[in-house]
Design brief:
The structure holds two protein chains of two kinds.
Chain A (H helix, E strand, L loop, with lengths): L2 E5 L2 E3 L5 E8 L8 E7 L3 E8 L6 E3 L7 E6 L4 E6 L8 E8 L2 E2 L2 E2 L3 E4 L3 E5 L2
Parallel strand pairs in A: 2-13
Antiparallel strand pairs in A: 1-3, 3-8, 4-5, 4-9, 5-6, 7-8, 9-12, 9-13, 10-11
Chain B lengths: L3 E4 L2 E4 L5 E7 L7 E6 L6 E5 L3 E2 L7 E6 L2 E6 L9 E6 L7 E2 L3 E5 L1
Parallel strand pairs in B: 2-11
Antiparallel strand pairs in B: 1-3, 3-8, 4-5, 4-9, 5-6, 7-8, 9-10, 9-11
Classes of the chains: A mainly beta, B mainly beta.
Chain lengths: 124, 108
């Protein structure tokens, strides 16, 4: 069955870096676009970034642009989120999520499988 | 950025009753509106996409309707496992993909 297991979360000081990983199994990882979505009690669910199935394209929400980088290693079935210059408002549970499919050479932007989520706390 | 506003924030009902949840978009999203269910301690689960299409394995008591800016998720004859938080999500105009703030469906 499809599994997405995130790791790398924890407590990080403001302006420092953290790298999240998401190990995928149970499906052909290299066929699917992948996302990071985060959740806080105050702001709810917030889409963070998407990476094309082949690594050729990536998009970000404005608040993380220039600070976060999404990437993937299809040979290792793993998605990454490099978080630099983190801020207090980056504190959240981070989910990796699989996109439902593609249409017109773009992801459908629907999330059919999600990891369990990993907590990132930005605090000094 | 398209803002999605869900109402009510909390809905208190009893098992067996029907629930009607609303999602309003700040501008038209055509039919590109999805609904997710999130139980405590779990990630969201895709229920409905493109306003009215049930995802694989979703029971028929869940139905969606609407287009443009106004959408509804209806759950007929509530089961105990249906008490959860429900989010809407638009994919019409992106980035970013956006979500509503959620409606908590609680047991009365």
């Amino acid at each position: 069955q499809v599994q997405l297991v995130a790791s790398g979360g924890g407590v990080v000081q403001p302006e420092r870096s953290l790298r999240l990983s998401c190990a995928a199994s149970g499906f052909n990882f290299s066929d699917f676009d992948m996302h990071w979505v985060r959740q806080t009690p105050g702001k709810g669910l917030e889409w963070v970034a998407v990476m094309w199935f082949d690594g050729s394209n990536a998009y970000y929400t404005d608040s993380v642009k220039g600070r976060f980088t999404i990437s993937r290693d299809n040979s290792k079935n793993t998605l990454f989120l490099q978080m630099n210059s983190v801020r207090a408002d980056d504190t959240a549970v981070y989910f990796c999520a699989r996109d439902f499919g593609r249409s017109d050479d773009q992801p459908l932007l629907l999330f059919d499988f999600w990891g369990q989520g990993i907590l990132v706390t930005v605090s000094s | 950025e398209i803002v999605l506003t869900q109402s009510p924030a909390t809905l208190s009902l009893s098992p067996g009753e029907s629930a009607t949840l609303s999602c309003r978009a700040s501008q038209s999203v055509s039919s590109y509106l999805a609904w997710y269910q999130q139980r405590p301690g779990q990630p969201p689960r895709l229920l409905i996409y493109d306003a009215s299409i049930r995802a694989t394995g979703i029971p028929a008591r869940f139905s969606g309707s609407g287009s443009g800016t106004d959408f509804t998720l209806t759950i007929s004859s509530l089961e105990p496992e249906d008490f959860a938080v429900y989010f809407c999500q638009q994919r019409s105009s992106w980035p970013p993909v956006t979500f509503g703030q959620g409606t908590k469906l609680e047991i009365k």
